[in-house]
């Protein structure tokens, strides 16, 4: 049983990074980027996601969905958003991400992240929007419809304020889920053999007074 998502707090960061690593354990882009075996991924996955969680927390738009049955409560989903009024990443945050990537996957990952960033930067919309940088439901809790609940607070705000939302899907299995939430594919970017990103845009829905 879950309630609506709450804002993520700084002490939640390690657990949130570990949850995202579990959620993305079979993601084709993340596994291609890190290029580590399953045993090493248990260590490197949380290292990779930690600066992403911290960046979104600083912007006030990192959300955690909890299973409230228990005790203890446990997080089941994380959503990381970037609001329209701040840069996606600062130079200092870029350094933190670089260091985390080096720790997680070694220097060989820098060429792969360069290709990934180039593909991502070509199609970001020019108008203001909320950017869904990462969303994940724990592997053990997937298939329960929790993703829609997790994304609802920001999507509702987008509709209320007349703002769009944008994301890049790194797994083709997730495209249909995003389409049900109103996203449409606006570009397809092949990255490497069998690895691609789908840029998806959601126009705000009309909210009646």
Model description:
- With 209 residues, this protein is an alpha+beta fold.
- It has one domain (6-202): Gcn5-related N-acetyltransferase (GNAT) (Aminopeptidase), CATH 3.40.630.30.
- It has helices at residues 13-23, 28-34, 38-58, 91-105, 109-121, 146-161, 175-180, and strands at 6-7, 62-67, 74-82, 129-137, 164-169, 184-192, 195-202.
- The chain has a seven-stranded mixed sheet with strand order 1-2-3-4-5-7-6, sandwiched between helices.
- Helix 3 runs antiparallel to helix 4 (91-105).
- The radius of gyration is 16 Å and the shape is globular.
> Count of DSSP helices?
7
Largest sheet: 7 strands, mixed
| CATH uppermost class | Alpha Beta
- Tell me the name of the CATH homologous superfamily: Gcn5-related N-acetyltransferase (GNAT)
Q: Could you name the ranges where pLDDT drops below 50 across 5 or more consecutive residues? A: none
Which CATH-level-2 architecture?
3-Layer(aba) Sandwich
SSE order, as H and E?
EHHHEEHHEHEHEE
**Which bin fits the share of residues in helices?**
40-55%
How many domains, in number, for the residues?
1
Would you tell me which CATH topology applies? Aminopeptidase
Give the strand order of the largest sheet, numbering strands 1, 2, ... along the chain.
Answer: 1-2-3-4-5-7-6
Helix and strand content put the structural class at: alpha+beta
Count of strand segments: 7
Strand portion:
15-25%
Coarse morphology: globular
Distance between the termini: 31 Å
Q: Could you tell me the mean pLDDT?
A: 92
- Using the CA coordinates, give the radius of gyration: 16 Å
């Amino acid at each position: 049983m879950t309630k609506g998502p709450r804002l993520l707090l700084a002490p939640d960061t390690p657990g949130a990074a570990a949850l995202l690593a579990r959620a993305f354990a079979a993601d084709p882009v993340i596994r291609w980027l890190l290029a580590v075996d399953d045993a090493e991924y248990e260590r490197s996955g949380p290292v990779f996601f930690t600066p992403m969680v911290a960046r979104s927390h600083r912007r006030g738009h990192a959300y955690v969905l909890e299973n409230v049955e228990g005790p203890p409560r446990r997080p089941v989903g994380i959503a990381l958003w970037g609001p329209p009024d701040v840069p996606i990443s600062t130079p200092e945050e870029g350094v933190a991400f670089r260091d985390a990537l080096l720790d997680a996957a070694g220097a060989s990952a820098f060429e792969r992240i360069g290709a990934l960033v180039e593909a991502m930067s070509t199609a970001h919309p020019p108008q203001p929007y909320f950017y869904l940088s990462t969303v994940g439901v724990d592997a053990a809790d997937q298939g329960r419809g929790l993703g829609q609940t997790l994304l609802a607070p920001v999507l509702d705000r987008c509709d209320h304020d007349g703002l769009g939302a944008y994301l890049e899907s790194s797994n083709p299995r997730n495209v249909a889920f995003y389409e049900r939430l109103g996203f449409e594919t606006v570009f397809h970017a092949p990255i490497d053999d069998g690895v691609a990103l789908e840029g998806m845009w959601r126009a705000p829905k009309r909210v009646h007074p």
